[in-house]
Amino acid sequence: xxxxxxxxxxxxxxxxxxxxxxxxxxxxxxxxxxxxxxxxxxxxxxxxxxxxxxxxxxxxxxxxxxxxxxxxxxxxxxxxxxxxxxxxxxxxxxxxxxxxxxxxxxxxxxxxxxxxxxxxxxxxxxxxxxxxxxxxxxxxxxxxxxxxxxxxxxxxxxxxxxxxxxxxxxxxxxxxxx
Length: 178
Fold this sequence. Notes:
With 178 residues, the protein is an alpha+beta fold. It is 43% helix and 13% strand. Strands 1-2-4-3 form a 4-stranded antiparallel beta sheet, sandwiched between helices.
């Protein structure tokens, strides 16, 4: 049997996205506490994230949201990585407050944010090792967060994944709002 790469590409990208999720899960965590939430959006959910990005553009007026909303439509999958909110009780002041007890609820514990960054880096390293196209997008992550795709997770980052002759997530022209 002959397999044409074009016919197996999406299946392969989805397999790699799953490997990226595993890499994010096994990344080191602050204090060894695993509060990272990880998921993957495909097909219609990618379209819903794109639509939500347009809504955020209407609210905030940030033009890069339009560009990114179009870019993610070229992805076969989007890996989503966020964190549940947990104050680690170190009183390290890394968040800007001397004591954890002084930190307002809406301010994330810095360790949680660092954990998301390490998990994103681990997922992206896996993608690079396996030669697929990616880009970290907080814009698509914010849309996925607003849609509740990772439950109550905050600080959600999105990594669209594609395998094409040219990375569709770089050298992007800004979309003009008409």
